[in-house]
């Protein structure tokens, strides 16, 4: 399963339901987009280290941005930005899940539900 950025934020805020979801998932992945978003939200080097240590300690696999993911994401932006406000970050995360044939876990149903081939597991905090 691929976890969206918001699931990590729920865990950081102490949401036990989000933490249990992560703990109960055998194969844990995140897109490079999510990884960058988590680092971008850090306010200092200590928080950067916390993000990196968390991902390592819980055996998350960071999935790279490949040519196929980039191409699929650009199609999503072209198809869905005007009608549903899909932004590039969401498109990259969704394309990473689709290209790797994985389910995406996110509480952000609004940004992902429009993408038909995406397997989405909606998290309700």
Low-confidence stretches: none
Total number of β-strand segments? 5
CATH architecture: 3-Layer(aba) Sandwich
Strand arrangement, major sheet: 1-4-5
Provide an overview of this structure.
Helices cover 59% and strands 14% of the residues. β4 (103-106), α7 and β5 form a beta-alpha-beta unit. It has one domain (2-122): 5'-nuclease (Rossmann fold). The chain is globular and about 40 Å long. Strands 1-4-5 form a 3-stranded parallel beta sheet. Strands 2-3 form a two-stranded parallel sheet. By secondary structure, it is of the alpha/beta class.
Supply the key terms:
single chain, 125 residues, alpha/beta, Rossmann fold, three-stranded parallel sheet, two-stranded parallel ribbon, 7 helices
